[in-house]
Amino acid sequence: MKKMSLPTVSDYCLLEKIGTGSYATVYKAFKKDKSREIVAIKCVDKGTLSKSAIDNLLTEIKLLNVLKHEHIVEMKDFFWDEGNIYIVMEYCDGGDLSSFIKRKHKLPENICRRFLQQLALALRYLRDHNVCHMDLKPQNLLLMRKPQLVLKVGDFGFAQYLSNSEHKFAIRGSPLYMAPEMLLKHKYDARVDLWSVGVIMYECLFGKAPYSSSSFQELAEKIKDCRPIEIPKAAHVSMTCKDLLMALLKHNPSDRITYDEFFAHDFLDLEHAPAKENYDKAAALVHKAVEADADKNAKEAFYLYCEALRYFIPILINENDLKRKEILRHRVNDYIRRAETLKVAFRDDNDEKHPSSENKGNTSHLQRTPSLERSSAFAYNELRCLSKSTSGMTDALEIGEAAEQYLAEGSYALALEKFQSCLGILVSLLGKEPLGRRRDLLHKQVQIWMKEAESTKGLLATKDIDSSPRTTDEQCILQ
């Protein structure tokens, strides 16, 4: 390629320095044409480049030329002159995730989930292209503030083409976020990025990395000793959040969550990520809910509305067009109100069928649960009687009853936690249960509570719409 055919630095006006690295300086700039497009320009001093730095830079340019994804910082151009190499990138006006965490001290779980969803979408794209980033850390996760706060993966200086079966030995990345197998100079593969995601997730939730240390030596000792990673005592995180965090932060890569398991994890819920096809799914579910509602099937209509909300709410939060957003917000609020009304309707219906202990002297504990139908009430009562011979089953059933009570009261986070807790026990017991009446009853109850847990997730998602206080520059992600 001839130098004269390339653009020159005079095509841009540098405005201010926004970052520095070991061999590069990053400037905010704008293009000197009618567009006046704002960009970030990474200026690399040729004179400071070692052979490995040149290799890294060439790999970064090659990768960024190929990788095009909404959650990966886009390379718009590159060129050079006598002293420097210039990489023109899209400008991310929200700074980086590290600065965002420092300003907020720690992030609410729903905001952490949203950032992790976006990081996971980028990683899924990278895995599809056999690319391993090798240097995931909050400083390399950039934020776009307008039209809404969006996370983008940047700095591919250490990235490599690396499949799950290939192994490497060279140390790459930043020690605090580096997987144990890499830090200890063992062979490693693409799973190193998953450890880094775990450290980033921990820092988002608690404001510091799990192995924060004053020196590299201290960090290495903690890693080498496999020091247990603990959740801060004052912190509260949901069971699914903790499950993902601990699955990512496994010292032995063989024990660590796989990429497929990571992308499928309930905490991320990528299945309901905002997308055109998911809008169509949500609309179809609402249509079915309206039909069930017209047929006086309150419970089925409730389940369908809740399932639709799990698709609609991420789309609402992600919508950029203010007019469309307001229309969708009104529709979603209508669906939320109808779901709540239906929940009360079938609860009251069941209360009529099963009077509370205040009105009837010898009723069972079962009759205080809000959402069991007459036919399943007798079956459930039989299951409780049959469960007494098995350690843990009776306790798990009582946890499930508490979950239903919390659901009826609108305490969705507690309801979901209880549903997940009881199902974790009952599903395990079901797998060991021999064929017979008790197994049939237990299977039926597990199915009921699984459906109610899914509905609870739909209602809990409604809290994301306005659960966090807004600031001027971050309100878009918190709407």
SSE topology:
Blueprint: E1 12-20, E2 24-31, E3 38-45, H1 51-66, E4 75-80, E5 84-90, H2 97-104, H3 109-128, E6 131-132, E7 141-144, E8 150-153, E9 160-161, H4 180-183, H5 192-206, H6 216-224, H7 239-248, H8 259-263, H9 276-294, H10 298-318, H11 322-353, H12 374-387, H13 393-409, H14 412-432, H15 437-461, H16 475-478
Antiparallel strand pairs: 1-2, 2-3, 3-5, 4-5, 6-9, 7-8
Helix pairs in contact: 3-5, 5-7, 9-10, 10-11, 10-15, 12-15, 13-14, 14-15
Largest sheet: 5 strands, antiparallel
Whole-number tally of structural domains: 3
Helix content estimate:
40-55%
Radius of gyration: 27 Å
- The low-confidence parts are 1-7, 352-372, 467-479
Strand content: 5-15%
| Straight-line distance between termini | 48 Å
Mean pLDDT score, rounded? 85
- Give the neighbour order of strands across the main sheet: 1-2-3-5-4
Give me the secondary-structure category: alpha+beta
* Number of separate helices: 16
Shape: globular
Number of strands: 9
Output the helix-strand order: EEEHEEHHEEEEHHHHHHHHHHHHH
